[in-house]
Amino acid sequence: MILQLEGVSKNFGGLRALSDVTFDLPEGQILGLIGPNGAGKTTLFNCISGVYTPTEGRVIFRGQEVTGHKPYDMAKAGMARTHQIVRPLNELTVRENVIVGSCFGREGNGLTAAGRIADEVLKFVGLDGRRDQLAGSLNVGQKKRLEMARALAARPYLLLLDEVLAGLNPSEIGHMVEIVRNIRDQGVTIIMIEHVMKAVMSVSDRLVVLDYGRQIAEGTPQVVANDPQVIEAYLGDPDLALRLMRDQARSQEST
Amino acid sequence: MNSPQDSSVVGSAPKVSWREALSQNAGAYVGLILPLIIIALLTIWPTVTGKDITRESIFTIMLSIALASSLNILLGYTGYVSFGHVVFFGLGGYVGFYLMAVQGWSLWPAMAMGGLAAGLLAFLLGKAILRLRGGYFALATIGVNEAMRAFINNFEPFGGPVGMTLNFQVYRDYGGAAQALRMTFYILAAITFIVILVSYFVRMSKFGLGLLAIREDEDAAEVMGVVAPSAKTWAYVLSAIFPGILGVLFFFKNGSIEPVPAFRLNFSIEMIVMVMLGGQGTVLGPILGGIGYQSLRGYLLTSPLFKNIQLAVAGVLLLVIVLFVPAGVVGWLRNRFPVLRRILQ
Amino acid sequence: MDFLFTSILDGLMLGFVYGLAAMGLTLIWGVMNVINLSHGPIISLGMFGVYLLFTFLGMNPYIALIFVALFGLLLGIVIYFVAVNRVIDAPHLSTLLATFAVAMIITGLGTAVFTASPRNVDYSLGSVTIGNATIPVTRIVAAVLSVLITAGLYLYLHRTRSGRYIRAVANNRSAAELMGVPSVRILALSFGIGTMLAALAGGLISTLFPFTILAGGTYELKSFVIGVLGGLGNPIGALFGGLILGVLEGIIPTFMPATWVPVLEFGLFVLILLVRPQGLFGAKKS
Ligand SMILES: Nc1ncnc2c1ncn2[C@@H]1O[C@H](COP(=O)(O)OP(=O)(O)OP(=O)(O)O)[C@@H](O)[C@H]1O
Ligand SMILES: [Mg+2]
């Protein structure tokens, strides 16, 4: 198990954003984390990556308890993440952004080695043409890829992807999904928060569903998609429910 | 599972050929050329003209450059606005001056102790106030400076409100007052030289990259693994040590020290203005800023037209810079002429 | 004991005025997150406003305050559009330096016109005796006016439409914009009210102590301390912060040399920033 969550809960004042989230994640898998808006998915990432300290519960990463550790401790321990709302280092170049990821991530590379890794990773995510541009001048899709590149350059054991597909056009989505598969094939474990159901269903080995901070379902995409509780949770968000079911039907047709 | 290290995409770092390394490193020093030439010119200029008055005005310029460059490590690279940075200049100056005037130490060890005292204060303070962000940090540094000034004002060993004076005899050890004066100039030149090198190597190092990341987005930097609390503290310490040393040198030359001039808040703000004027976050910026600011000030103070309203004129200029050229001279040039980026670091 | 009583009473009276002086600073901070470094020079202008109207036009100082307030309001709006609006969303350094530049301009011109020599408003209303304490009536009037102005500000912020807009912008500017609040105008108005309060405070202080064109600087530093005591961004808290500072200044000298007052003040200031940056009275926003 690369990651174990035991009863992770998080309160913001009176609001219980997460309550008692518990699951294990084996190495090498892609775990899809889904749920309606405000379900607590990003908050869970923040609890795992050390941005927030969980109010209750434990986070165990690669056999070590890391509850309440600082984000930089988690980065050094081999965890990397992207942000739902992109956070480029605006006044640094694209390449420098990625070098930061490599220099301060798990491997703690020197500048020269990090530069090499940055060049490779940028090519991999298709940003090599823009490496000397200031990160602030990229468009949103490119910034998403930059987030991804920075995280990859750290060479993490566990990669947390927060809605990397949101706001991308269909062809970009296809490209990004390829990238995610590719990363997994290289042995990196991934947790992926996603609203684009079709993509997350097709790419994930397992899904965890959050609703109002509670974990309402867990299992393979097939099982989860047929879970009445999940359908109900999404019915609060009819659009999504509809899409979920349509995607589901389509994927059944094709099999 | 196969470990991520031996994958192709994020594969291990390829070996860098020595040739490439050399050319890269040679490229890395290009940015040093201009700063060093300027410092060298400033250093020899008084000898060329042979006038003491030139040396005096260049002393002021060089002091400004060294102080602004030190501050730039925190302000420009790390993005923390230290409004009360003069506290390090004043405290270092006081500690060194006390050692010279009361304990009979000579200049060198006194300077070392001044730097040490400033660095230590920054280290202790840094642990506490660098947690504050944005305006709160700026306010705290003002508070620290005012508290320190008020404290020294009451601190009898340092002479309280009257401060301390150096016995004129002290200069005899350095070959007389005139000789001592000349000596302080060359010491200052050497320190400025070192400050520029430090500033440059910090800028080009991994440590410096971490600082820039903190400046751009501290939370994101931490998520990427930058250990912000310690990086910030060291940046603060580095940016405090040189003002501490320079304080000793300045007040040694001055011959006396008092709380008000030692902890003058406006002096801090002048340093910030110089950094802004030249271009924060660059090595060359504070150098040009120091020269530009002091020349302008000298001009305004002596010009019959502006003499009386020099402060107001300086204010208008500052406002224009802040509003229209926030990146400073160097930043503006870098944006305007990307080709020059390598030279204008 | 009597001595202590006098000191506390004295400190309290002064504290109200201090509170008023800090209120403008903390209002501006609360609404737009700007530390207004031209605060001190504007306090000085308020002093000179009352001084000039009183000395050369023979106007009653309290009537003069009305003109000073109007002038402060207009000046603030002008400063906002000239110096602040363009950098309102830039990093903190920009607004700090922009307002500092304004401070340089005001101080520079002020020194050129008025020189740095001390002035005073030669106006007295006699004094009253409470117990053993003798208090000049101008002080009592200054304290009462400070309280009234604070109450007026409170009512304005809570009872009028533009006041509510100001609070909405302070709370969350982008949300307020979405709801149709004209944010630039509200920001300018807030800045104007902030400087108006500073000028009023200066005007009141001029009836109490002699001053120079640079005197505002001292009150600016005090305002920082008070703002932090009462919670930056909480204008009403500033009044309490002012009282605390006033009382401290009153009683500290009774048991240690007065020169230690600023050491304790600024030590306390840094300490509170560290442990309770939202101020002693909790709420972060007005
Ligand atoms: N720092 C915070 N302070 C207070 N409340 C917060 C904070 N962060 C998140 N919340 C609240 O916690 C809940 C969960 O938010 P979260 O961002 O984790 O949802 P999410 O599942 O990522 O939603 P989305 O799909 O919209 O990204 C929301 O109600 C949100 O308002
Ligand atoms: Mg989210």
Structure write-up:
The complex is a heterotrimer of chains A (255), B (345) and C (286). Chain A has helices at residues 41-48, 71-77, 94-104, 111-125, 140-153, 170-185, 197-203, 221-225, 228-235, 238-254, and strands at 3-12, 15-25, 30-34, 56-61, 64-65, 79-81, 158-162, 189-193, 206-211, 214-219. By secondary structure, chain A is α/β, with parallel strands linked by helices. In chain A, strand 7 (158-162), helix 6 (170-185) and strand 8 (189-193) form a beta-alpha-beta unit. In chain A, helix 3 (94-104) crosses helix 4 (111-125) and helix 4 (111-125) packs across helix 5 (140-153). The longest helix of chain A has 17 residues, at 238-254. The mean pLDDT of chain A is 87. Chain B is an all-alpha fold. Chain B has helices at 18-49, 52-78, 86-101, 107-129, 134-154, 177-204, 206-216, 218-223, 228-254, 259-262, 265-278, 284-302, 310-324, 328-336; strands spanning 164-165, 256-257. A two-stranded antiparallel sheet of chain B has the order 1-2. In chain B, helix 2 packs antiparallel against helix 9, helix 11 (265-278) packs across helix 12 and helix 11 (265-278) packs parallel to helix 14 (328-336). Chain B is globular. Chain C has a single domain (2-275), classed as ABC transporter involved in vitamin B12 uptake, BtuC, CATH 1.10.3470. Helices cover 74% and strands 3% of the residues of chain C. Chain C has helices at residues 2-32, 39-57, 61-84, 92-114, 137-159, 161-171, 173-178, 183-206, 216-230, 235-255, 261-275; strands at 127-130, 133-136. Chain C has a two-stranded antiparallel ribbon with strand order 1-2. In chain C, a hairpin with a 2-residue loop joins strand 1 and strand 2. In chain C, helix 1 (2-32) runs parallel beside helix 5, helix 6 packs across helix 8 and helix 9 packs across helix 10. Chains in contact: A-B, B-C. The B-C interface holds B 75, 79, 81, 83, 128-129, 131-132, 134-136, 138-140, 142-144, 146-147, 149-151, 153-154, 161, 269, 272-273, 276, 280, 308-316, 318-319, 322-323, 326 and C 29, 33-35, 82-83, 86-87, 90-94, 96-98, 100-105, 107-109, 111-112, 221, 224-225, 228, 232, 257, 259-263, 265-267, 269-270, 273-274, 277. The site of adenosine-5'-triphosphate has 12 residues of chain A, from strand 2 and helix 1.
